Amino acid sequence: MKLSKYIFLLFPLFSLLSSCNNDEIEPLIDSTLQAEREDQIIQQYLAENNLTAQQTDLGIYYIVLEEGEGSQNPTTTDSVTVNYVGTVLYGRQFDSSYETATPLGFVIGEGTVVTGFEEAVKQMKIGENTRFFIPSRYAYGESGITSGDREIIPTLATLIFEIKLEEINE
């Protein structure tokens, strides 16, 4: 009897909610304001640490730590192999290929890594080691990453990836 009472109460609520003809879901945050905020946070981090960085067209800051060889950059459909360390800005390390002794291989354009990581690698040459500051909109955004009840990457986290491009296979 109690179950039918709840169903009876939920039905009008469901009808009301489904009758709202809102085809667009409003984002939880204003993406322009968030982009500006993160840019300021990255600039502040760079200033606090006396670092000078360049910036890509997407707004990803980077510092070349070790120059690479040649003039070839990976492009869409190239298979690449990289070693990397990922940390949260002002935070802890969350991943490293060095700890597993297994470089990461992926194909540019297949979406197997976050957009910012892929865009970062496309800037590099073989042998180059670069530190990238990736805004959340090109990483895990509003979702972040959790494992069980443990937060691995917070919501809206700016990430730092130190990446070494080991190999490009066309």
UniProtKB/TrEMBL annotation:
Protein family according to the UniProt entry: Belongs to the FKBP-type PPIase family.
Protein name in UniProt: Peptidyl-prolyl cis-trans isomerase
Pfam family, one: FKBP_C
Matches recorded under PROSITE patterns: FKBP_PPIASE, PROKAR_LIPOPROTEIN
Domain PPIase FKBP-type: 77-169
Organism: Bernardetia litoralis (strain ATCC 23117 / DSM 6794 / NBRC 15988 / NCIMB 1366 / Fx l1 / Sio-4) (Flexibacter litoralis)
Catalytic activity, as annotated: [protein]-peptidylproline (omega=180) = [protein]-peptidylproline (omega=0)
Sorted UniProt keywords: Isomerase, Rotamase
One of the record's GO molecular function terms: peptidyl-prolyl cis-trans isomerase activity
Enzyme class: isomerase
EC code(s) of this entry: 5.2.1.8
